[in-house]
Amino acid sequence: GSTKKEGASVIFKLYCLAVLTVMAASYTVLMRYTRTVEGVRYYSTTTVFVTECAKMFFTLCILLKEHKGSIRKVSQELKGNIIGKPTEMLKMSVPSIVYAIQNNMTFIGLSNLDAATYQVTYQMKIPCTALLSVMMLGRSLGGMQWIAVFVLTGGVILVQGIGGEAVSHTSGTDGNYVVGLTALTIAVFCSGFAGVYFEKLLKGSDTSLWVRNVQMYSWGMLSAFMGVVMHDWQNVRENGFLYGYTPLVWLVVLLGSGGGIYTSIVVKYTDNIMKGFAAAAAIVLSTIASIMFMGLVVGWMFVLGASLVIAAIFMYGLPKTNTERLPTKKGGT
Ligand code: C5P
User: Fold this and answer.
1) Residue 21 pLDDT greater than 90, yes or no
2) CA-CA distance, 29 to 245, in Å (whole number)?
3) Among 182, 30, 33, residue whose Cα is nearest residue 109
4) In terms of C-beta density within 10 A (0-12 exposed, 13-18 middle, 19 or more buried), how is residue 116 classed?
5) Mean pLDDT across the chain
6) For residue 204, what is the DSSP state?
7) Do residues 88 and 208 lie in contact, with contact meaning Cβ atoms separated by under 8 Å?
């Protein structure tokens, strides 16, 4: 067995969180751009499917590297965990299908809302995730930590709301505001539920992250394909699966798949609530960097929002918590 010390270094965690945040931010901007720019429109359900395939490909590459290039060992491990553990495999279908719904809903949200409204609404996943972590993982948050969660949410909303365009109903395209908001509300709940459920399965067993991801993306490919069949089948048959795939759409796929992989790493080494705090901190830091190096001008809303985010981090008492294991009720090891 390995005698490696528990956990990863703080630097590694920060690095993962930073990469994730940069990817998520550029993903949102690019996805919005490719959905609203003039010209042929790709079918977003196909993009969700292609992204699942890309994640599966990356995960298999990582597994192959872990097994020093031995395809035989990788397939042995996968066989044991997929065919050999049908119940575990079946359990993974839950977060995977919910994520597939979420990923399709964010496309609908961004196609119908301006980026700022989208960002602000999507931040509701922070309290949603906290609530579900308490309910589903048996984590307990103190009163101060709960306040911190809401202060953080408010802070991020203020910071995001000023990001470039003001929060307004005018999306500049023929978007449908109600459809966009409804889709995004569904995405918020899916994000919280799937994230926490994935964390529960990952930390509740010894199965490795990468095997878990293979299980996850198998279902992901299947359910994303169902999405294509249900929503765009006729279009795909007429114009082809990759209709309208410009290089920028491929970049959306790349950022989406990279973001997914980093999400899984972040959830393994920290947790879903921490992911929210880190994302908020990174948004504030990147805005401050833009102020310092690119002469970005911000108003008092940013200053207030950023202060709230920083205050929330201290109120939550982040460094104190060990989040790499689930609290054991049985008083385990
Ligand atoms: O917005 P949120 O952080 O909830 O999005 C999480 C994203 O990470 C989803 O797009 C989901 O498909 C992806 N993910 C993944 N692999 C995991 C967990 C999440 O690709 N193991």
Assistant:
1) no
2) 17
3) 182
4) middle
5) 88
6) T
7) no
